[in-house]
Every structure is written in structure tokens, then in C-alpha cells.
Amino acid sequence: MTSSDRFVAVLADAAVPMCDDCIAAAAGYAQRQRANADGRALADAGAIHRAKGRCARCGRYKSVSWPLDGSPPVGGLALVPAPVPGPALGPLDRPWHWEGNVQAALATHLAANGYKLLQVVDTASKAAGVDIIAERGSETLWVTVKGYPVGTPRTNASMQSRHWFSHAMFDVVRYRTERPDIAIGVGLPDGFTSYLNLSPKVAWLKKTAPFRFLWVAEDGRVREE
After folding, report:
1. What is the pLDDT of residue 178?
2. β-pair type (212-216, 48-54)
3. What distance in Å separates the CA atoms of residue 39 and residue 28, rounded to the nearest whole number?
4. Alpha carbon distances (Å) from 80 to 55, 57, 145, 152, 186
5. Which of 39, 117, 137, 144 has minimal CB crowding within 10 Å?
6. Cα distance from N-terminal residue to C-terminal residue, the chain
């Protein structure tokens, strides 16, 4: 059995997103770098899913891989662990509602519900492009993702969030103009008053240029609206 075979076997047995370190340990790799190389090669070949996200074993935010036929948990919830006591942080001590963490939870949720991830941009580097592009059957889904601002003594978080929300709505208009045939999603962190108050106010746009909200909770669960 090759190292790639062991990589796939571990994923098939776990059926949840796992990072290279956890896969290397479970598959008996001598070097973690070998798991990284196998993971990238398998993803390029279309044999597995691979993206930035939280490992279901160690809970760390890293490159994770999961099988193409991985089954979602009961209720179709995101395949991410509940947060441990204390602040939920991502890379560079980012809060859970940072855009990159919201994007990772959404990517995991979509993959767990049968979508093939075609694109997940690197939000940390402010890479250009649609944040998430996914495909399931005949449906192509474009998702624009926004986090919630931390705020500073000079910048009110609630006011800044209104600007971010308006940017998301502009993305909806732009995507719908560019691709009338696609499905569109707006990913936002759940539980923030400004976003929850603003979402009903774009009902007209939601009907005119159809899209759906994808609300991400702190524990990674996603609800659609």
C-alpha cells in the first residue's frame, strides 16, 4: 500500500476533515511533509476535497482534507468541532467571526452537504475573486463572505459592519449581472445585531436578484435563510 493509499484510507475511515499532521499520525507517516505532498497531489487529481478549515481531530485551523463521499453529521451541520472553553480563535489569534474563519466553516459545510469546492480564495492575503465557488449537480454556487469587525477606539464596529454588509450586497448585484444562471450565497457570522437587523431590509433585492444568507455560528454550524 502506497502512502497515498494510506492517506485516502484514513480519510475514508474518519469521514471528517483532517489536517496533515493528524493524517500523518493516523497513517504512520515518518514525515509530516509527505502527508502534505500526498494531500495536494490527491486534491489536484480530484480524488479528495482539500481547503483551509478546522481539523475535526485537533481543532486547529489549517489545510484539511476529507473524502469526496464523506457523510455530513446528523442535521447536515458543518463538520467542525464545538469550541473549547475560552475565546474561539483562528490563525494569528483571529476571533471566530473573522472572515477567514467564517469562510472556512462555510467551505466545510458545503463540502459536507455534497458540494465540490472549485475555489476558496485566501482571505488572509486579501486575494481577489469570488470567496467560494462550489458545485453540486447542475448548480454552481458563488458565495461572498464577510466577517464582523473587531472595532477600534476610532472605528465603531457596528458602523463598519454596515459598510461590509453593503459591500456584500454589491457583490450580489455584480455576480447576478455577470452570471444570471448561478446560485448566490452571502456568508455572515450569526448573532450580530447589525447584520440581523439589516438582512430583512434587503428583501426586495433578495427577490429581484435571488440569493440566500448563510449564517455561521461560533461553533461552526450553518443555517440557511
Report:
1. 95
2. unpaired
3. 15
4. 7, 9, 18, 30, 20
5. 137
6. 45
Handedness of CA 125, 19, 101, 48 (dihedral sign): positive
CB 104 within 8 A of CB 54: yes
Q: Can you say how many angstroms the Cα of residue 133 is from the centroid of all Cα atoms in its chain?
A: 11
Contact 17, 56 (CB under 8 A): yes
120: Cβ contacts below 8 Å, ≥ 6 apart: 51, 52, 103, 107, 131, 132
pTM: 0.64
Put residue 125 in one of left, alpha, beta given phi > 0 → left and psi -120 to 50 → alpha.
alpha
Residue 58 has pLDDT above 80, yes or no: no
Which one-letter amino acid corresponds to residue 175? Y
Pairing of strands 183-189, 212-216: parallel
Q: Examine the pLDDT at 73 and tell me if it is beyond 50.
A: no
Q: Is the dihedral of CA 196, 200, 205, 209 positive or negative?
A: positive
